[in-house]
Specification:
Blueprint: H1 3-23, H2 27-49, H3 56-67, H4 72-75, H5 80-121, E1 132-135, H6 141-150, E2 155-159, E3 171-174, H7 180-185, E4 193-196, H8 207-219, E5 224-228, H9 235-240, E6 245-247, H10 249-262, H11 267-273, E7 281-287, H12 297-306, E8 310-316, E9 330-333, E10 346-352, H13 353-358
Parallel strand pairs: 1-2, 1-4, 2-3, 4-5, 5-6
Antiparallel strand pairs: 7-10, 8-9, 8-10
Helix pairs in contact: 1-5, 2-3, 2-5
Length: 359
């Protein structure tokens, strides 16, 4: 594009921006006006300049290049009518095109700004599906989110305030996780599971965590819930809220510490299998496929070893009828290899982190 054509286009665009600011045209109406001007001008060029020689679309192509100041027709129309068309396109066409561009850019910018502000303030609604919703923030939440993202799992966080240095891949929702509306904004109804943490911003005991569990159960009872408890005496109340799994973080850390103290050099192995954020190994649980029903543990473990896994044990539901949460299933570490497989059953193995992410 020549300097002269560029200056003319810029001036026309400025006029369009001015018109957009003054009259606030609707984008659809302005676009139709521009399309009508182009199509009408193309018809007159086809009629008056070309005497219906060639095709109408060739004339339309000529007009479109004239709009941006390019092409032979933009500088040398052959008829007086053609000069009028070039004049109208140069004045009104470029101005209307500027209106369209101004409106589109303004809407894009406004939408993007609203989105960014919404994400920063946590007022947007999470659109994830099959994600993990972390309810509450404490010192362990950052490590939990890091492990989830490292395993390839989408994660969202509900907290009173946005934490510093929160990973941009974590969808943040500002609010109280014990409120139904906040949970819905966190996408709880499409989540795979929820992690309920004790948040010091909502009290120093387990009561708020239990209220959050009740809200999750009421809003999305099918979501698998894992709760962090501090006081074992409160477990019965968590069970009333139908929490699927309960962890006592303090006792877990104490058990690992004692194990490392008694077994010198074991800590690197524990760090490896308990983390998905490295290139090592981690625990993974899989549902045993239907075609293994009636076969032996030996057959299944042999297959897992051939695939690079290290089988550790199985988890089976206790005897009884009705639905029993997986957290209440019976674990068997290193079961007898002649044991017959009955379904449902889960197998637990140590796998490479890359394999765990694919699963």
């Amino acid at each position: 594009m020549s300097a002269k054509s560029f200056i003319k286009t810029v001036k026309g665009t400025r006029r369009g921006v001015s018109l957009a600011q003054k009259f606030h045209y609707r984008l659809g109406a302005v676009f139709m006006l521009l399309a009508g001007l182009l199509c009408g001008s193309a018809f007159f060029v086809w009629w008056l300049e070309k005497d219906f020689r060639g095709s109408y679309f060739d004339s339309l192509w000529t007009i479109m290049f004239t709009l941006i100041g390019q092409g032979e027709f933009a500088s040398y129309p052959h008829t007086f009518s053609g000069k009028i068309i070039v004049f109208l396109i140069s004045i009104f066409g470029v101005a209307i095109l500027g209106v369209v561009f101004a409106e589109v850019l303004q809407r894009i910018i406004n939408s993007k700004i609203k989105q960014l502000i919404g994400e920063m303030m946590g007022i947007n609604t999470c659109k994830f599906e099959g994600h993990v919703l972390v309810c509450g923030w404490n010192t362990k939440a950052a490590y939990i989110l890091r492990e989830l993202l490292a395993s390839g799992t989408q994660a969202a966080l509900i907290a009173k305030e946005r934490p510093d240095n929160l990973d941009s891949n974590v969808f943040f929702i500002q609010g109280n996780p014990s409120e139904r509306e906040t949970l819905i904004r966190g996408g709880i109804q499409k989540a795979q599971s929820a992690v309920i943490l004790k948040d010091p911003n909502f009290g120093e005991d387990d009561s708020h965590s239990i209220l959050t569990a009740l809200a999750v159960e009421d809003t999305a009872p099918e979501v698998y819930t894992v709760m962090e408890l501090y006081n074992p005496d409160n477990e019965r109340y968590a069970r009333y809220a139908h929490v699927d799994d309960i962890l006592y973080s303090d006792s877990l850390v104490a058990n690992i510490t004692a194990m490392c103290t008694q077994n010198e050099g074991i800590s690197p192995f524990i760090r490896d299998i308990l983390s998905s954020a490295d290139d090592g190994h981690s625990f993974a649980a899989f549902d045993v496929p239907d075609d293994y029903k009636g076969r032996t543990i030996h057959d299944m473990f042999d297959y897992l070893r051939s695939e690079g896994g290290l089988p550790v044990g199985v988890i089976t539901p206790p005897a009884g009828s009705g639905h029993i949460p997986a957290s209440e299933w019976v674990s068997q570490v290193n079961p007898p290899e002649n044991m017959t497989i009955t379904l449902p059953m889960k197998v637990v193995c140590i796998v490479k982190d890359s394999a765990a992410k694919k699963s």
